[in-house]
Amino acid sequence: MLAKEFALAIVAASAMLVPGAHATWCDYYYDAQCQQNANSGTSFDCANHGSFGSGGGYVQCHTTKTNQQDCMITRCGDSTCSNILNITQVSPNGGTGPCVGTGGDGPWYEQKFA
Question: Beta partners for 88?
């Protein structure tokens, strides 16, 4: 019985790592239709304030129906984001939001809740 409870705890902990378990997460794309993923399917959580590289110039964000928050996308010229190139606010509105241009293609981004 203990092994079964342990397995359930691992599954529950793993669910916290899945993007859908978070309030708002975004995917980056090369095209305006958001079909050509720029990061091999990796999603970025808006609660993660670190910078990351992406060549994509378009973003599509997602929220859960019960936890909706807008995401501020900062496009930067360097990995520390001290050189801000553009800031875009994305509103997924309780599901999958529109495909939005970020003002250019990377090379670095930061995300945070609006």
Answer: 73
pTM of model > 0.90: no
Q: What is the pLDDT along the chain (114 residues), one digit of tens a residue?
A: 444 443 333 333 333 444 445 578 999 999 999 999 999 999 999 987 789 999 999 999 999 877 788 999 999 999 999 999 999 999 888 889 999 999 999 999 999 998
* Nearest-angstrom CA–CA distance, 18 and 13: 10
Token pair in block for residue 53: 């590289």
Give me 21's structure tokens.
């378990």
Listed as own residue / partner, the contacts of 74-77 with beta carbons closer than 8 Å and 24 or more positions apart are 74/109, 74/110, 74/111, 74/112, 75/102, 75/103, 75/104, 75/106, 75/108, 75/109, 76/51, 76/107, 76/108, 76/109, 76/110, 77/107, 77/108
